[in-house]
C-alpha cells in the first residue's frame, strides 16, 4: 500500500456500537456538568494582573469564581485541563453520535470559553505580555507582578512544582492544541485568532533563548510544543496559500518556534537503539517529543530523518516497554529494556501515555501505510482506552495496574483534574477516530467497530460485535457510481483460522497486499454487502522477563480474572493522585495440575480456558485456582488479574 492516506473527518463517521456510544454520552455529560467560569477563572486572573487590575477588579472580572481545587487546577499547572476540555468540546461538537440539541449545547459552551479567552487576551494588548494567556495560580506578589514568571524560572532551570514552576510549557501545549482544534474541528475563527496571537508570544520567547537557555528549557517537561506549533504553522500556511485573510502571513515564525522544541540530540540518541536507553525516563515527557518529530516530517517531507526518529522510538517502546493492553510505564517512567514482569505494580500504564502512543501510531500509518501501526492502535483502543473508563460514571483512570489483584482507580467529577482526566475528555469524544483512513481511490477499514461512514458519493455501514460473533458485515451504498473506492480490509493480527470473505452470496478470494484484503470497486459497482468471518480463539502472551508469566486474549480482547470487590481501597500517591492500596490475592502464582509443563498447558490452552455459552466469560481449569476471566475493557467494578505466574 502506498502512503497516500489521511484520516477521515471526525464529522463523517458515527459509531453505532452501544458501549462506545454510552461512553461518549457519559463523557459529554460530565464535561457539561463543569462550571466554565471556574475553568477560565485562572485565565481571567492572569489577564487582570497583566492589565494592572487591583484585587477587587480581578475578582469582578473572574465573576467571583475560583479555580477548581485538588492541587492541579489550583496549582502551578492550572489551565492544562482547559486545553484538553476545549479540544474535547470541539470534537464533540462535530461528533455525529450527538443529536442536534446536544451539539448546540456543546457549541455554546465552546464558544463561551473561546470568547472568554479572547477577552483575556485583549487585555494584554500594548503590554509586555501581548498575546499571552495562562491559567495557573499566581501564589505570591512576584507572580502577580510577572504572570509569566513560571517561564522565567524554567529558563533559569528552576522547577519546584509548588514554589517555582510546574511544567508551564506542558500546560501551554494543552492550551494551544485546544485552540487549534477549536478552529480545525469546530471552525471557530476566534480560536484561530487567539492561537495566532498566543503563537506569536511563544515564538518571540523562543527567539530570545541563548544556546544555554535553550538546553535548559528542553530539560524540563514541555509536552508536545513542537507538535502543536507545527500544526499552527500548517493551518496558517494553507490559509495564506489559499488567499484566506484568516491566515497569519508571518506563519514561518511558528515553524521556527516548533523547531526550537525539537530535541534533536534525544532523537539521534534513540535511533542508536542503545541498550536500556529509555531507563528511568519520564514516559509522558518523552512520547510527545517524538510525535513532534513526526509532525516536522508531516509539514516537510524532505525531513525524512524525523520520520525515522519517530519510527525508531515507536518500535523501541512497543518491543521493549509495552504490556499486553498496549500501555506502558511504571510510576510514569520507562524501565530497563524488557523489564516488565518485575515492574508490575499498582502504577502501570499511565493513560496519557496510551493516548499519545495511539496518536503516534495512527499518524505513522497515514504516512507509511504500514499495517503494524493499525494493529497496535486497534488493540490498544479496546484494551487500554476503553478500559480506562468507569462505564457507570464516565470517570477515567490515571494508572491501570498490571500487578495482579489491584483495581482501577478513577477521578471524580470536580476534584481530580489529573493530566489523564484531560486526555480522558479527548479519548471519549473521538471514538470514531482511527476506524477509517482514505486515499484518492481507496478506503481503509482499520478497525472493526459498528459504525457508519459517509464518503464522497457513498455510505459504508459496518456491523460488528466480536463479543457476540466473529462476523463483520459491511454494507456499501453507492450514490454516485463514479465515487466508490477499493476497500482495504485490515487482516487482524489475532486471527486463529482461515477467514472467509463474501460479496453478496458469493465467497471470494480477495487479493491480499501487505496485510490487507482488497475488495475492488468492480465487485461492488452499485453497492452491496460484504461479510467477513474472522475466526477468533485464545492466545497466550508471556513477558520477556517472565517466561512463565502469561496473559490471555480472546480475539481482539485482553482477558482479566474477576477478583471481587472486597479489597478495593485507595491511598495517596505523588502529587494529589490516588491509587489502589491493596491486592485482593495473596499471590499471583498458579500451579498447573493437568499438563506436564507450562509450555504444554499454554499449547493446549483452548482445553483449559473454557468459554461459557453466549458469554464473554472463560473458566480456567486444570489448575489449583479456579478463576473466571472476562473482557478487561469492562472490568471497572472489581479487582482483576491479567498476568499470572504458572508452574507445575
Automatic annotation (TrEMBL):
<dbReference type="Pfam" id="PF07944">
    <property type="entry name" value="Beta-AFase-like_GH127_cat"/>
</dbReference>
<dbReference type="GO" id="GO:0005975">
    <property type="term" value="P:carbohydrate metabolic process"/>
</dbReference>
<protein>
    <recommendedName>
        <fullName>Glycosyl hydrolase</fullName>
    </recommendedName>
</protein>
<dbReference type="InterPro" id="IPR049046">
    <property type="entry name" value="Beta-AFase-like_GH127_middle"/>
</dbReference>
<dbReference type="InterPro" id="IPR012878">
    <property type="entry name" value="Beta-AFase-like_GH127_cat"/>
</dbReference>
<feature type="domain" description="Non-reducing end beta-L-arabinofuranosidase-like GH127 middle">
    <location>
        <begin position="443"/>
        <end position="536"/>
    </location>
</feature>
<dbReference type="InterPro" id="IPR008928">
    <property type="entry name" value="6-hairpin_glycosidase_sf"/>
</dbReference>
<dbReference type="Pfam" id="PF20736">
    <property type="entry name" value="Glyco_hydro127M"/>
</dbReference>
<feature type="domain" description="Non-reducing end beta-L-arabinofuranosidase-like GH127 catalytic">
    <location>
        <begin position="14"/>
        <end position="433"/>
    </location>
</feature>
Amino acid at each position: 500500500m502506498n502512503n497516500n492516506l489521511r484520516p477521515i473527518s471526525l464529522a463523517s463517521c458515527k459509531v453505532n456500537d452501544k458501549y462506545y456510544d454510552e461512553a461518549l454520552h457519559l463523557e459529554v455529560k460530565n464535561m457539561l456538568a463543569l462550571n466554565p467560569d471556574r475553568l477560565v477563572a485562572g485565565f481571567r486572573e492572569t489577564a487582570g494582573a497583566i492589565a494592572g487590575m487591583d484585587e477587587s477588579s480581578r475578582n469582578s472580572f473572574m465573576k467571583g469564581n475560583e479555580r477548581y481545587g485538588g492541587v492541579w487546577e489550583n496549582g502551578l499547572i492550572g489551565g492544562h485541563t482547559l486545553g484538553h476540555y476545549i479540544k474535547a468540546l470541539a470534537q464533540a461538537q462535530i461528533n455525529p453520535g450527538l443529536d442536534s440539541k446536544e451539539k448546540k449545547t456543546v457549541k455554546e459552551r465552546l464558544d463561551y470559553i473561546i470568547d472568554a479567552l479572547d477577552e483575556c487576551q485583549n487585555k494584554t494588548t500594548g503590554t509586555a505580555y501581548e498575546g499571552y494567556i495562562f491559567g495557573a495560580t499566581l501564589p505570591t506578589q512576584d507572580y502577580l507582578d510577572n504572570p509569566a514568571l513560571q517561564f522565567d524560572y524554567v529558563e533559569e532551570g528552576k522547577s519546584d512544582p509548588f514554589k517555582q514552576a510546574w511544567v508551564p510549557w506542558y500546560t501551554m501545549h494543552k492550551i494551544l492544541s485546544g485552540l487549534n482544534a477549536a478552529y480545525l474541528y469546530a471552525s471557530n475563527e476566534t480560536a484561530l485568532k487567539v492561537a495566532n496571537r498566543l503563537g506569536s508570544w511563544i515564538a518571540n520567547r523562543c527567539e530570545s533563548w541563548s544556546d544555554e537557555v535553550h538546553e535548559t528549557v528542553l530539560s524540563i517537561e514541555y509536552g508536545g510544543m513542537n507538535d502543536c506549533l507545527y500544526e499552527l504553522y500548517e493551518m496558517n500556511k494553507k490559509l495564506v496559500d489559499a488567499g484566506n485573510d484568516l491566515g497569519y502571513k508571518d506563519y514561518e515564525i511558528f515553524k521556527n518556534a516548533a523547531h526550537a522544541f525539537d530535541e534533536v540530540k534525544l532523537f539521534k540518541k534513540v535511533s542508536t537503539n542503545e541498550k536500556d536507553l529509555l531507563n528511568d525516563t519520564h514516559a509522558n515527557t518523552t512520547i510527545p517529543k517524538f510525535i513532534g518529530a513526526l509532525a516536522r516530517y508531516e509539514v516537510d517531507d524532505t525531513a525524512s530523518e524525523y520520520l525515522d526518529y519517530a519510527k525508531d522510538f515507536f518500535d523501541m517502546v512497543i518491543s521493549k516497554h509495552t504490556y499486553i493492553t498496549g500501555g506502558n510505564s511504571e510510576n510514569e517512567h520507562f524501565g530497563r529494556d524488557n523489564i516488565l514482569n518485575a515492574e508490575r505494580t499498582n502504577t502501570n500504564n499511565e493513560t496519557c501515555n496510551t493516548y499519545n502512543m495511539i496518536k503516534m501510531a495512527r499518524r505513522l500509518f497515514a504516512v507509511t501505510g504500514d499495517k503494524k501501526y493499525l494493529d497496535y492502535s486497534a488493540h490498544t483502543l479496546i484494551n487500554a482506552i476503553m478500559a480506562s473508563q468507569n462505564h457507570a460514571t464516565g470517570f477515567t483512570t490515571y494508572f491501570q495496574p498490571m500487578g495482579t489483584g489491584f483495581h482501577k482507580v478513577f477521578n471524580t467529577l470536580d476534584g481530580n483534574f489529573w493530566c489523564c482526566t484531560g486526555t480522558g475528555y479527548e479519548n471519549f469524544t473521538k471514538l470514531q477516530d482511527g476506524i477509517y483512513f482514505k486515499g484518492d481511490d481507496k478506503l481503509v477499514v482499520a478497525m472493526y467497530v459498528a459504525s457508519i461512514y459517509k464518503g464522497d458519493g457513498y455510505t459504508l455501514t459496518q456491523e460488528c460485535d466480536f463479543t457476540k460473533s466473529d462476523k463483520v458485515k459491511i454494507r456499501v451504498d453507492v450514490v454516485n457510481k463514479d465515487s466508490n473506492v477499493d476497500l482495504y480490509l485490515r487482516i487482524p493480527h489475532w486471527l486463529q483460522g482461515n477467514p472467509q470473505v463474501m460479496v453478496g452470496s458469493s465467497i471470494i478470494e480477495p487479493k491480499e497486499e501487505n496485510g490487507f484484503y482488497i475488495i475492488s470497486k468492480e465487485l461492488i459497482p452499485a453497492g452491496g454487502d460484504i461479510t467477513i468471518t474472522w475466526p477468533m480463539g485464545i492466545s497466550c502472551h508471556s513477558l520477556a522477563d517472565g517466561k512463565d508469566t502469561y496473559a490471555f486474549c480472546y480475539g481482539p480482547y485482553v482477558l482479566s480474572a474477576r477478583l471481587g470487590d472486597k479489597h478495593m481501597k485507595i491511598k495517596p500517591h505523588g502529587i494529589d493522585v490516588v491509587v489502589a492500596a491493596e491486592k485482593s490475592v495473596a499471590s499471583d502464582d498458579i500451579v498447573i495440575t493437568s499438563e506436564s509443563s507450562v509450555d504444554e498447558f499454554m499449547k493446549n490452552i483452548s482445553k483449559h480456558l473454557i468459554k461459557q455459552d453466549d458469554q464473554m466469560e472463560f473458566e480456567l481449569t486444570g489448575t489449583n485456582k479456579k478463576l473466571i476471566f472476562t473482557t478487561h475493557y469492562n472490568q471497572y467494578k472489581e479487582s482483576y488479574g491479567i498476568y499470572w505466574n504458572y508452574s507445575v
